Amino acid sequence: MNLYCNCLCNGMATYILIDTVKFIYIGGNMGFLEAYKSFWRNYVNFSGRAPRSAYWYVVLWNVIIFVILYALAFIFGISAIMEAAMGGTGMAGGGGAIVLVIILWLYLLAALLPTISLMVRRLHDSGKSGFFVLLSLIPFAGGIIMLIFMCLESDGPNQYGDGDIDSKFDF
Fold first, then answer.
1. In this predicted model, what pLDDT tens digit does every residue of 84-125 receive, in sequence order?
2. Pairwise CA distance, residues 59 & 38, whole Å
3. Entry pTM
4. Which residues fall within 8 angstroms of residue 112, CB to CB, at 6 or more apart?
C-alpha cells in the first residue's frame, strides 16, 4: 500500500494518496483549485459525499470558463461581421468564432457527467438520495429545487457516511 501525506496551511488541508488511485481530501472546505481538480479526478464517482465548497467552486470555475470562451467567440463573430461590412477577407473571420463555439460545446459536453456525479455526491452530503438529481428535469421548478438542495448544509452522519469524517471528504 502506497501512502502519501501532505499538509498545507498549518494543517488546514491534507491529501492522502492510497494505492496511487484515489485522493481523499481531509479538511472542512475545499479550496478553489482543489475542488476543480477533484471534479475531474472523480469523473464518474457517484458514491460518497461532497462538501458545499466543492460544488460551488466547480460551478464558479465552469462559469468563468464558459464566459471566457463565449466572450472570445462573440468578439471573433463581431470581428467577422465588421470585416464583411467593410469588404475585407482577413484571418479574423467567422472561422475563429465557429472554432470557439465548438470548443465551448465540447467543454460543456465533457463537464456534463462529472457535474451530475458531483450533484449526486452533494445530495448524499445533505442526506438525500442521488435520484433527486432527476428533479432537475422538471422545467423551471426543478432548477429551483436543485438550487435549494445544493445550498443545504451537511446533515452529519447518514447512510452515505459519517458526518464528522466523510462530510470533509471528497471522493
1. 777 766 555 567 788 888 999 999 999 999 999 999 999 998
2. 13
3. 0.72
4. none
